[in-house]
Amino acid sequence: MLLNIKNLHVSINGKEIIKGLNLGVNKGEVHAIMGPNGTGKSTLAAAITGREGYEITQGEIWYKNKNIIGMPAEERANEGIFLSFQYPVEIPGVSMTNFMRTALNAQREYHELPAIPAGEFLKLMEEKKNLVEIHSKLNNRSVNEGFSGGEKKKNEIFQMAMLQPSLAILDETDSGLDIDALKVVAKGVTGLRSEENAFIVITHYQRLLDYIVPDFVHVLFDGKIVKSGGKNLALELEEKGYEWIKEQYHAGS
Amino acid sequence: MENNPGTNILDEVTQGDYKFGFYTDIENDFAPRGLTEETIHFISAKKEEPEWMLQFRLKAFRHWLTLKEPEWAHLHHRPINYQDIIYYAAPKKKELASLDEVDPELLETFNKLGISLDEQKKLTGVAVDAVIDSVSVKTTFQDTLGKHGVIFCSFSEAVKNHPELIKKYMGSVVQYTDNYFAALNSAVFSDGSFCFIPNDVRCPLELSTYFRINAANTGQFERTLIVAESNSYVSYMEGCTAPMRDENQLHAAIVEIVAMENAEVKYSTVQNWYPGDKNGIGGIYNFVTKRGLCKGNNSKISWTQVETGSAITWKYPSCVLMGDNSVGEFYSVAVTNHYQQADTGTKMIHLGKNTRSTIISKGISAGKSNNSYRGLVKILPNASNSRNFSQCDSLLLGDKCGAHTFPYIQAGNETSIVEHEATTSKISEDQLFYCNQRGINTEKAIGLIVNGYAKEVLNKLPMEFAVEAQKLLAITLEGSVG
Ligand SMILES: Nc1ncnc2c1ncn2[C@@H]1O[C@H](COP(=O)(O)OP(=O)(O)O)[C@@H](O)[C@H]1O
Ligand SMILES: [Mg+2]
Q1: pLDDT tens per residue, range B179-235
Q2: What is the CATH number of the domain that holds A88?
Q3: Interface residue of A15, A75, A90, A102 to substitute, partner B, most B CBs within 10 Å
Q4: Is it the case that residue B475 has pLDDT exceeding 70?
Q5: Residue A86 alpha carbon to ligand 2 centre in Å
Q6: Which burial class, exposed, middle or buried, applies to A193 when counting CB atoms under 10 A from its CB (0-12, 13-18, 19+)?
């Protein structure tokens, strides 16, 4: 199993947000995580990627046969965990070229590889830019600065393509995208999909799942996975909304 | 993030160590501790100066005695005991005909600092004047420069060999009466660099002076004079370091620049004097007066500084825009960490018509430091159609440091335009995590973000310096996040 989360509890400032979550992801799989706002989807992503301030009070996160709790965020990244941020942050003055080269070389250094030659790097940039249909002069623009909402999301997928992760978590990469941008994002993901990697796609809408067909759909509610199923579950959610899940959940508990 | 884990991180990245803190054991000639007229006679005699130079010093000294240390800056330090300082320290061997005669310890010192005084191993296109404590030990490439009529030598040599030029220009931009530290420097200055670019010459090499304080208990008081005649151009760089010591050492320098018609002078500084330790013990007190006079029409002087060192920095590289259409620029990055304090900025004095000035100041504060921008833009009534643009940004790392902006604007006519913009920002925990998530550790991330923030200024530095400055920014903030 690539990722195996067992009985995970996560608190922020002493308030428990994830309350005993289990999730197993194998190589080659795409898992969709759906659920209403504020149920802990981004918190789960933060816990997996090792963000500080997210206190794991119980449970284990196994990734590539290692319990990664306590592992620094950059190490997890270099081990192949990638997060496409729900809200990508701007870094003024740092060009995309410089940023990506630093990131790629950090990864290579971690794996005891020499820094990537400049020419090869620029070729790679061009190739991946085409993949996500970024035609603007991305290279000299500062990271996410002045990017439109759609450009920011495409830029996340571009970075994913550059870094070739084993486990990619897409946190609402589809929100706010028009249909064309959505297709581009989907194309980026399908282009990368292989038997060697896996995706966790966090989304509100089943729309994206028309393009990235998931193997499993999970419903996250109140910090727990309350329902799992195949891709049809997404369609059912689209149709009926989340109310019935809430009702079922409250009736059960 | 509400719980702000970033603050701890920031506390840790600013714990880096000073990389130039070694001391070299070389034999020295010292002046007796303290400052009296005798000290000045001693220095002047050591340097075998002509009578007019001695008189200049004495006049400055007598004036200094009537002055009080300025108190208006946003700086706090223990009182400086001017009688407890050694005003002259020189490596014993002198009058060097070739590099072979330089004390090998000294050469090693400069090698450790990454500065080669060996012309065979030259940095491409850079001539160096190396000043250790009170004297210049070696100036490279004098022959090459001489062919173009460029004079680049130590100030002492210039006093001997070019007295007419020194008499004409020394003190013409920064009078000894200018301020407390200028008066002190004028009385006791020991060495420094002189450069003169004749009419119509574009200086074929970058010129640079490297200052090193080595001896204990001494002050460093150097003086630099740059004269660019009509239609000439020169790019000049200045670097400096000092050993790590528990006591504070005083550095009070003067830099004067004169640019004649159509001349352009670019002056770049990477200031990395020892900043003191994490607890604020030791470090250099850096009180410097730098001023350029755009004397001729269409002349241009630009100051670029990267200030990372010193326990205290008090420094306002300024331009007096006398010639019509003359241009003054000030690009500054000032980083303070731990208990460092910086009060730095510029003065742009517009006298001529259609004069233009640009001020870009980037302050970066970490630890428990204090970083102030202080700038004056003064447009005189006759300076019609003049323009100034000022941008003063502050970046805070952590919440125990301070950033302050003191802009003074005096617009004396209706046809001129003065624009001032200021921002304050923080490195956010979101930015750091974003970098971490891409595999970049926090220390590297801070270096990346800070260099991005300072890019506009770093881009103005000559290539050789820009790379060094970028590394320095990262090192200075090492340990401010972890
Ligand atoms: N830094 C934080 N401090 C306090 N509460 C937080 C923080 N981040 C998220 N939360 C809370 O945790 C809950 C889950 O948030 P989040 O994981 O962002 O939900 P989702 O991504 O499912 O919309 C919400 O109630 C939110 O208010
Ligand atoms: Mg979310």
Answers
A1: 999 999 999 998 889 999 999 999 988 888 887 777 777 788 999 999 999 999 999
A2: 3.40.50.300
A3: A102
A4: yes
A5: 6
A6: middle
> How far apart are alpha carbons B66 and B467 in whole angstroms?
44
pTM of the model: 0.84
Residue A38: CB within 6 Å of ligand 1?
yes
Answer whether B2 touches A (CB < 8 Å): yes
Q: Give the DSSP letter string of B33-56.
A: SS-SHHHHHHHHHHTT--HHHHHH
Residue tagged 């399908």 (tokens): A190
Cβ–ligand 1 contact at B95 (below 6 Å): no
Confidence at residue B97, expressed as pLDDT on a 0 to 100 scale: 47
- Nearest-atom number in ligand 1 for the CA of A44 is 17
* Contact assignment for A163 to B438 by CB distance below 8 Å: yes
Query: Whole-angstrom Cα distance, residue B378 to residue B381?
Result: 10
In 3D, which of A22, A66, A77, A26 has the Cα closest to residue A44? A22
Residue B479 is predicted with a pLDDT of: 63
How deeply is A182 buried, as exposed, middle or buried, from its count of CB atoms within 10 A (0-12, 13-18, 19+)? buried
Q: How many domains does chain A have?
A: 1
pLDDT of residue B244 exceeding 90, the answer is no
Domain that holds residue A90: 3-252
Protein residue with least CA distance to atom 18, ligand 1: A42
Please indicate whether residue A223, judged by its CB atom, sits closer than 6 Å to ligand 1: no
Distance set, CA B45 to CA B42, B50, B87, B208 (Å) = 5, 9, 14, 28
Q: CB of A87 closer than 6 A to ligand 1? A: no
Answer yes or no: do A13 and B3 touch at CB < 8 A. Answer: yes
Convert the pLDDT of each residue in A110-138 to its tens digit. 999 999 999 999 999 999 998 888 877 77
| Separation of CA B350 and ligand 1 centre (Å) | 55
